[in-house]
Amino acid sequence: MDAHRRPPKLMDRVKATIRVKRYSPRTEKTYCYWIQPLHPFPWRATPCQHGSQ
């Protein structure tokens, strides 16, 4: 295992979760479409990186 391996990207995690829940491909496409504007910049912290402040 590579020590510098990055965690999966947000969209990859969303797609994996949708597939595990066995949603339709159309639903996956729609969810990803709606999430894209909410996560526009790759250098912003992901929700699990925010923590309590």
From TrEMBL:
One of its GO terms (molecular function) is DNA binding. InterPro entries: Integrase_recombinase_N, Integrase_SAM-like_N. It holds the Pfam family Phage_int_SAM_4. It comes from the Bacteria. This is Phage integrase, N-terminal SAM-like domain. Residues 10-45 form the Integrase SAM-like N-terminal domain. Keywords: DNA-binding. GO terms for biological process: DNA integration.
